[in-house]
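TICKET #2291
ISSUE: user wants both folds in one file
ATTACHMENT 1:
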Amino acid sequence: MIPKEWIDQAHERIAPYIRRTPLTNDSQNDLYIKWENRQVTGSFKGRGAFNKILKLEDWEREQGLLAASAGNHGQGVALAGKVVGAPVTIYAPDHAPEVKVRGMQELGAEVRLIPGGYDAAENAAIEQAENSNATWVSPYNDGDVIAGQATSALEALEQLEEYPGFEIEDSIWLVPVSGGGLVAGIGAVLKGLPKPPKLIAVQAKAEPFMHALFYHGHQNIQAQSRTIADGLSGSVEEGSITIPLIRKYVDEIFLVDEAEIANAVSTAWHQYGERIEAAGAVVLAAALSGAVPNRPVVLVVSGGNIQPEAHQEFIK
């Protein structure tokens, strides 16, 4: 489990390096939206990366940092590595959006593009970590990373206190899921409350690996296609600590299709003036679909690093 003191310590540790992202209320639809697309590097991933890397010993940093990423975790690791003066190497799928690859490189990371999707990139990075002295920084299978991601929930709970009449026990929280670091961290915070809300993870129907693990105990499935929510693509590392954490904290996992995700990216822009990526849009897609009839709903929009051409296509 992720102890509360780990999360409180992470909150204090990373505060100088991250942003307190806004939380806004759509009163017409009774939605409370936490905009992690406004975070440093454009996603929540900086929280966990900073917490992990700031806790490392000097010698661990000096050996270099190694990670696998579709782009957002890699940018978080690259920025944290830059702050502490550690060299960073990121293994990324060769179809990762150019905006994310460029973001990692501009922060000083060496990016190695691996054919075959996120799974191939993660497997290659883990093998390299095992065969070298580099320090492995998992995007989700790490208690310190999860504790860092959990700080988004601490912030949101403080911000929700500013809304008279909001009752946490009556709310439903929607959080994106892939490897599960964000929803596991948020779950550790919420389920520790005296009257916890309902917590629902949301995943792309095209690549429902965590959904399969949650409901069937395995991920031996055939992905329908490559999802536009690239930040949620790929299977989960075998034995990941997020698997039991999600079973403990998450009440349900919803799936949304590609058309619903694309529509949510458009809605975020036209209704809220927010540029979000498809992986962050899955929660808004679930809220808009009518699958969550009860209100109020708290949405954690995880990121905004979207290829400009793709965003233009979605919002036209």
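ATTACHMENT 2:
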Amino acid sequence: MQSQYLRQIQSLDPVTEHSQICHFSTGYEFPWATHRALELALLRTFCIPSVAATLQTTGKFIYHAQSRYDDTGLLVANILYWGYDSPQGAAAIRKMNAIHSRYTISNTDYLYVLSTFIYEPIRWNESFGWRPFCEQERLAFFYFWRAVGERMHMQAIPDTYAAFESFNQRFERQHLRYSEANRQVANAVLKMLTGWFPAIVRPLVRASVYALLDDTLLAALDWPQPTARSRHFVTAALKLRQQLLRWTPPRKQSGFIPEPVVEDGSLSTDPSERNPSAQVTTRSRCPFHQILQRSR
């Protein structure tokens, strides 16, 4: 059945009204899927040695993985929920620019990471979406994140959806390969992800993460090949969820409930590091929290 949000999305122009489209699509139609796709996008960037080396140098993802993950989620939530030119979204982009200014990062690495925010949610949707993205949604992701990239002072951002997708694929062919930094950063994040669950099910969670990755990514992270049974189980579970969600009522509240970005003091969600007046949400921390909700 067609949702009220899809009708609104299809009435909007992805070139000029992409912020509204992304607000509805990520917040109301696909919040859980967006979280999962961006987690996979994060793992994908760890497969680029130059990106992983920068993260290894900072030590943040290795020694403070949960706070770094929460910080990233906080910034992205503010941008998607409010829009990149809103006071909240602009504050999030200023914070990201300030964080990144401490490190030497190539423009092509910036572009690749930006491209994963566009194409990983689209690829997830192609496999596991409860409905396919419409053309307005796919284009809106491109125009939205391209505008964010411009505000982060990235150079030579491809100017069409197809050109940026080609860049993404070409960059991976040229640069996606194993390094020790890849493995260390990804292992720290995997430990964080499995730590959300009781110890008894952590091996199953770890196997499920492996099952979601293709062979190239597994090799780049030096992670084991999943069994055929694991891949079948994970795919079947997500396909079942896909079917069930087609009959659930639309969400009434956005799946992104951002807290304000702290511009003075630490952004970290670790209570020992963060500005004591700031609050954070952990609603999205456990994937099964939203799976068990009635809404999408």
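RESOLUTION: both attachments delivered.
EXTRA DETAIL ON ATTACHMENT 2: The two ends are 14 Å apart (CA to CA).
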